[in-house]
């Protein structure tokens, strides 16, 4: 049990990063500035990367930063730019029935929370597990999960072609 | 007794294809009937080709069957039992009752088959000319063919049900043919009268068949394996001593009532003269040679039933012989006062049928059947001759006094054939009637029925007399009326309404056209008919001359071929010997089992045969061969199918006496005719008006003994009218009331249902469901807003709810 | 560390993402909310992967990231198209499939 307590540092780190993430997420969905929303999303994604590190998933954390923040968010910003979103505050970023989202989200959360508590209430994560090495990861990808990897390549190919086709100007 | 004690003599009898397949004979005209009905109008000769061809085909088959039967008889020993060719095919079976259809071919069958097929063929050929241009030519031939099919079926019938089928078909066709020109009321009335009168007799047929079936069935299934409908079964049962006298007498009387109706015996003879309203070929086919002998055929066919049931040869008088005798006399008397030549012939037919019945009633089976055979030829010839006269000379009139006379100069062929047939009818040697009619009278006397023999002789006198009168009025004297070339105007024909074969209706173009063509004839005066008419006359006259020699008893035993071929042997036979033909068109095996000792059994008859009591001839010396006890004693083992009958030995003295009577009749009638019609002798003309007694007698005869008045006005009216009125009342008030009431209540209910159920309930439900659907649709419409956010909300919301439910269920 | 804390974090992010999908009008904002959801899934995957000591979760987290990238690419292309046709990317205007 002492070993468990030695994880106090991780717990505190987790708590802080979690708080930042939640606030950032809330800002994403409530802000009235598109660009701000994108930036808050970056905060969330960063926080997620930090959490991945806490979860001994370094490679995934790096990939998250590189791909998500580096590429996807840039994409988002480009999209915002190309669709002439107003710089600055917009008034009507919520649609007419935004209030329906609240009960849905609350209900969903309540359900999930109850279920999770019930299911995994007292399970601890192992404290002394080694960090997953890239070697291990690649062994898995190019081993048992080769097929999804290839399928994924097709998905990406399709996405690329699809995006180009869709946005062609003719 | 014979030395050959228990020896079984096996005789193999020859058979043949025609005998085996005689059941085809009625089918040929039946198929032809269907063809005429469906295709006749389109054929070049309007369907008559089918008719004539089918009758000739039937004739060929019948001749073949007759030939093979003769071979069969000739191939067997004298006096042996010749088994008939019997075949059955069961068409209905239930709970022990099985009905069959098939053939029963023996000598009687082939005789009548030949007669029917032959006369039908001749009449159809005759009709080709006689009815040319008639308005219903095709249907005439159809009915004629169907009639032949029906009668042929009756003749080959294996059981009573099949016989009844043929009987009824004949009755139907008779109705259709008598009423062929139904546009005139008299014709359709005559047809109805014929139908209803024979129908009255048919009650007897059905009753008799039923009674005999129930009485006989058990015994016949036990001994012979056939049902109580089978002809063989009934014959053997009747002679087996088994039947209770009540059952068999009732059956015999009932069946004889049917014969009375169909064969025109007193008192149901009234329809036959009226049936002359039909075309002449119909009269010559149906109402002289074939249909009317159906009753005689019935009696001859199941003769043992009558023999036992009415105690023929066992008592002084029986029902059949009495009726036959009465019929002979009353019909002959009525023939004297007729002015219509066909009616003379009709009454003559009734009288001759009376002879046949009297013969059967007195045990003279073979002479009666032979008389059927010969009578068919000369009577058909006489009728066809009358038709020939009307067709070519008297301008379609049949009135002797008005439109005929002196025709012998103009129609030599018709005259010659008429004379031949008349002589045959009167029974003059060597014409055929001598060999048949005189045999009847002879045998009646021989069997001990002396009174009836005298009646027969008196009938012969009267026959000669009225036929001479008819001949004189038609062929001698001076031509009168149409024969004199007088051209009757249209109105004039009104007098001949009942049998003129062209419509008086001026709208009938057919009648006019044919009339026009005949006008040419009439303007030429009387003349001989065409060859299509005279050829049948010549053929029939030749047969009237020669057919007697088939059974010429005067010339000795070897001349009696008809008897050899047709009369059933009265031997006692082993039941298993009544052959079903074994193996194809081959042979029939019978065992003829001769009894060893005198058969000791119960007396089947109540008294000794009448002939023995008369003490005349010694019967056992008669034919020189063994006489069986069938009919007098019950057979102990084996069955009898025919009773032992006696034959009077021919004596020239008896023949001479009857010939004298006939000549006396002819002479006295001739003298009277000459005096009355030619010389117009003052003493004779108008005699019936001056003399009260004679006048009353004449009036009585002219009104046909007031029988028609009795039947129509008294019996029919008293029964039918109240019933008709009652039925009408029931119909109007009860039946119509029910129908109307049903209608009114249906209407009311319908109105109520419409208002309440239909409008409110059903429409309400329908409209309500429509409204509900619309409302639901309207309510659900916002769900499909097309907005992604909304869809997203729905998606996640339902996922949340689903998850909640899952969680709740699993905890 | 409790397993639950990561899972609850994931649940919170998920629900916030759901709210964003429902409530936001701008198509790009909706896509961002979807990113939130995907990230919460990733956290879940990795947490369980650590608990079970296997690498499968990592693998799938990588795959999710890749798919998310592809999806954003296509989604933004569609948004672009939408903008080109209507000069606006408000999702509430996109209701031609309305029944």
From TrEMBL, chain C:
Keywords: Membrane, Transmembrane, Transmembrane helix, Transport
Transmembrane segments: 6-22, 29-48, 60-83
InterPro entries per UniProt: NADH_UbQ_OxRdtase_chain4L/K, NUOK/Mnh_C1-like
GO cellular component: NADH dehydrogenase complex
Primary location: membrane
GO biological process: ATP synthesis coupled electron transport
Topology in the lipid bilayer: Multi-pass membrane protein
Entry GO MF terms: oxidoreductase activity, acting on NAD(P)H
One Pfam family here: Oxidored_q2
Keyword Transport among record annotations: yes
Annotated compartments: Membrane
Family: Belongs to the complex I subunit 4L family.
PANTHER family the UniProt entry points to: NADH-UBIQUINONE OXIDOREDUCTASE CHAIN 4L, NADH-UBIQUINONE OXIDOREDUCTASE SUBUNIT ND4L
Protein name: Unannotated protein
């Amino acid at each position: 049990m002492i070993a468990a307590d030695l994880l106090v540092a991780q717990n505190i780190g987790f708590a802080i990063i979690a708080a930042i993430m939640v606030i950032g997420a809330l800002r994403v969905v409530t802000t009235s500035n598109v660009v701000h929303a994108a930036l808050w999303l970056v905060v969330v994604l960063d926080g997620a990367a930090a959490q991945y590190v806490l979860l001994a998933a370094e490679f995934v954390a790096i990939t998250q930063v590189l791909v998500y923040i580096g590429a996807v968010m840039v994409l988002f910003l480009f999209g915002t730019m190309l669709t002439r979103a107003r710089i600055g505050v917009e008034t009507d970023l919520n649609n007419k029935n935004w209030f329906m989202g609240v009960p849905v989200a609350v209900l969903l959360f309540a359900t999930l929370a109850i279920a999770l508590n019930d299911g995994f209430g007292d399970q601890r994560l192992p404290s002394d597990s080694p960090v997953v090495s890239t070697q291990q990861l690649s062994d898995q990808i190019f081993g048992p999960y080769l097929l999804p990897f290839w399928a994924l390549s097709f998905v990406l190919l399709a996405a690329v072609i699809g995006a180009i086709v869709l946005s062609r100007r003719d | 007794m014979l030395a050959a004690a228990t020896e079984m003599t096996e005789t193999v009898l020859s058979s043949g294809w025609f005998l085996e397949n005689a059941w085809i004979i009625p089918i040929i005209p039946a198929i032809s009937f269907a063809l005429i009905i469906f295709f006749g109008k389109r054929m070049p000769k309007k369907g008559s080709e089918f008719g004539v061809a089918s009758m000739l085909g039937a004739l060929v088959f019948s001749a073949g069957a007759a030939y093979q039967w003769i071979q069969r008889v000739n191939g067997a020993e004298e006096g042996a039992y010749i088994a008939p060719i019997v075949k059955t095919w069961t068409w209905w079976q239930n709970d022990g009752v099985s009905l069959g259809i098939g053939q029963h071919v023996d000598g009687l069958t082939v005789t009548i088959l030949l007669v029917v097929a032959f006369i039908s063929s001749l009449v159809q050929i005759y009709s080709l000319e006689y009815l040319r241009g008639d308005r219903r030519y095709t249907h005439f031939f159809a009915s004629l063919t169907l009639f032949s099919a029906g009668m042929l079926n009756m003749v080959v019938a294996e059981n009573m049900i099949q016989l009844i089928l043929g009987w009824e078909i004949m009755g139907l066709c008779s109705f259709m043919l008598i009423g062929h020109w139904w546009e005139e009321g008299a014709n359709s009335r005559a047809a109805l009268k014929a139908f209803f009168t024979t129908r009255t007799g048919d009650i007897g047929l059905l009753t008799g068949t039923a009674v005999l079936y129930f009485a006989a069935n058990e015994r016949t299934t036990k001994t012979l394996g056939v049902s109580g409908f089978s002809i063989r079964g009934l014959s053997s049962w009747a002679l087996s001593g088994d039947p209770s006298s009540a059952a068999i007498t009732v059956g015999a009387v009932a069946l004889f009532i049917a014969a009375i109706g169909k064969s025109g015996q007193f008192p149901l003879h009234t329809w036959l003269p009226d049936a002359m309203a039909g075309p002449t070929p119909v009269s010559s086919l149906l109402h002289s040679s074939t249909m009317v002998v159906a009753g005689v055929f019935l009696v001859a066919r199941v003769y043992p039933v009558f023999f036992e049931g009415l105690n023929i040869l066992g008592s002084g008088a029986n029902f059949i012989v009495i009726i036959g005798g009465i019929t002979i006399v009353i019909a002959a008397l009525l023939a004297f006062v007729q002015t219509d030549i066909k009616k003379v012939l009709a009454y003559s037919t009734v009288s001759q049928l009376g002879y046949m019945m009297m013969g059967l009633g007195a045990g003279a089976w073979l002479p009666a059947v032979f008389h059927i055979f010969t009578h068919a030829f000369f009577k058909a010839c006489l009728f066809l001759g009358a038709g020939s006269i009307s067709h070519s000379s008297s301008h379609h009139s049949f009135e002797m006094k008005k439109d005929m006379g002196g025709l012998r100069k103009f129609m030599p062929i018709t005259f010659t054939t008429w004379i031949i047939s008349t002589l045959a009818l009167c029974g003059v040697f060597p014409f055929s009637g001598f060999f048949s009619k005189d045999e009847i009278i002879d045998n009646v006397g021989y069997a001990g029925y002396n009174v009836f023999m005298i009646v027969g002789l008196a009938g012969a006198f009267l026959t000669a007399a009225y036929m001479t009168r008819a001949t004189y009025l038609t062929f001698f004297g001076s031509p009168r009326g149409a024969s004199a070339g007088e051209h009757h105007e249209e109105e004039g024909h009104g007098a001949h309404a009942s049998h003129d074969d062209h419509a008086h209706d001026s709208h009938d173009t057919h009648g006019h056209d044919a009339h026009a063509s005949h006008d040419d004839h009439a303007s030429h005066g009387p003349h001989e008919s065409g060859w299509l008419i005279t050829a049948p006359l010549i053929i029939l006259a030749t047969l009237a001359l020669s057919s007697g020699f088939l059974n010429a008893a005067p010339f000795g035993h070897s001349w009696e071929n008809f008897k050899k071929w047709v009369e059933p042997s009265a031997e006692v036979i082993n039941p298993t010997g009544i052959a079903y033909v074994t193996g194809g068109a081959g042979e029939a095996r019978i065992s003829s089992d001769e009894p060893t000792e005198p058969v000791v059994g119960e007396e089947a008859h109540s008294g000794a045969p009448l002939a023995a009591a008369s003490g005349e001839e010694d019967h056992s010396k008669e034919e020189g061969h063994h006489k069986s006890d069938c009919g007098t004693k019950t057979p102990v083992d084996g069955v009898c199918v025919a009773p032992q009958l006696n034959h009077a030995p021919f004596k020239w003295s008896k023949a001479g006496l009857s010939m004298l009577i006939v000549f006396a009749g002819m002479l006295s009638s001739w003298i009277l005719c000459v005096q009355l019609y030619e010389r117009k002798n003052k003493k004779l003309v108008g005699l019936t008006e001056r003399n009260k007694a004679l006048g009353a007698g004449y009036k009585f005869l002219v009104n046909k003994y007031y029988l028609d008045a009795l039947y129509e006005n008294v019996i029919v009216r008293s029964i039918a009218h109240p019933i008709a009125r009652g039925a009408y009342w029931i119909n109007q008030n009860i039946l119509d009331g029910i129908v109307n009431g049903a209608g009114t209540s249906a209407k009311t209910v319908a109105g109520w249902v419409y208002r309440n159920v239909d409008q409110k309930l059903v429409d309400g439900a329908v409209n309500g469901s429509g409204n509900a659907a619309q409302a639901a649709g309207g309510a659900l419409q916002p769900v499909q807003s097309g907005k992604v956010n909304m869809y997203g909300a729905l998606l996640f919301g339902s996922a949340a709810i689903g998850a909640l439910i899952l969680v709740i269920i699993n905890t | 560390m409790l397993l639950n804390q990561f899972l609850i974090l994931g649940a919170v992010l998920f629900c916030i993402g759901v709210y964003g999908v429902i409530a936001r009008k701008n198509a790009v904002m909706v896509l961002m909310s979807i990113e939130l959801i995907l990230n919460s899934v990733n956290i879940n995957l990795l947490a369980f992967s650590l608990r079970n000591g296997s690498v499968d979760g990592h693998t799938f987290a990588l795959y999710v990231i890749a798919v998310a990238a592809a999806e954003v690419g296509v989604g933004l292309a569609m948004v672009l198209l939408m903008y080109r046709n209507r000069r606006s990317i408000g999702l509430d205007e996109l209701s031609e499939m309305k029944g």
